[in-house]
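> forwarded from #structure-qc
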């Protein structure tokens, strides 16, 4: 899942096939969140250098070039990453059955505070707090209530930072459900999908599918092994 935003003054939405002009950036370590559930794959690799390697490759696909010593810098990209912290509470619902007996149903659900904080991290707040009855809101609440590996990249205008002005040029938030995977496999998959959205402005959330882990999937020629004829049905 990806959410991408760029300021009106930042022009980088290029037609397909057109490579934007290169921009030089430096990365800055932001906040790391270990999440609410112990995850050995995440705790084992909180090193920022591990993250930088994948981000550098992904950013280069959009012609963002990491700064070399003494090279003028266009953007300072602050990187926040980790796993969402899910705090739950027990809600009790009382209802009366057909025979008049009162039944109590216990339901574990995410707290309002946790839902709000995670919706900001994941970029789902517009959908979660769209109070009209709609399927997208329910889907966003369910997505935000799950543990997810995430990244938040905030790109500041570096030259304006030197003048003590904080001007955000673009923000890209991307995440994946932790179920069925681990951080080491999710990291390259997340950065691979998000790479096409860096510096762009999306009207809504984007949901893309990709394989987990390293590398690209290539399909060769299809080879027919054999054809099995259907058995004749006797009447």
């Amino acid at each position: 899942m990806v959410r991408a935003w760029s300021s009106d003054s930042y022009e980088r939405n290029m037609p397909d096939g057109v490579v934007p002009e290169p921009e030089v950036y430096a990365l800055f370590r932001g906040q790391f969140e270990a999440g609410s559930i112990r995850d050995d794959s995440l705790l084992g690799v909180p090193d920022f250098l591990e993250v930088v390697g994948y981000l550098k490759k992904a950013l280069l696909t959009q012609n963002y070039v990491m700064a070399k010593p003494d090279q003028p810098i266009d953007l300072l990209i602050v990187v926040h990453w980790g796993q969402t912290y899910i705090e739950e509470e027990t809600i009790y619902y009382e209802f009366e059955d057909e025979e008049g007996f009162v039944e109590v149903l216990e339901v574990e659900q995410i707290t309002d505070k946790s839902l709000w904080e995670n919706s900001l991290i994941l970029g789902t707040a517009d959908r979660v707090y769209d109070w009209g009855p709609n399927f997208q809101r329910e889907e966003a609440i369910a997505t935000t209530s799950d543990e997810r590996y995430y990244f938040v990249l905030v790109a500041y205008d570096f030259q304006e930072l030197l003048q003590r002005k904080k001007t955000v040029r673009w923000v890209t938030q991307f995440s994946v459900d932790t179920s069925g995977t681990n951080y080491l496999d999710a990291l390259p998959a997340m950065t691979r999908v998000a790479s096409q959205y860096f510096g762009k402005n999306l009207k809504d959330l984007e949901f893309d599918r990709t394989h987990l882990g390293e590398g690209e999937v290539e399909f060769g020629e299809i080879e027919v092994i054999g054809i099995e004829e259907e058995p004749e049905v006797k009447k």
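QC bot note: The radius of gyration is 23 Å. DSSP finds seven helices and eight strands in the chain.
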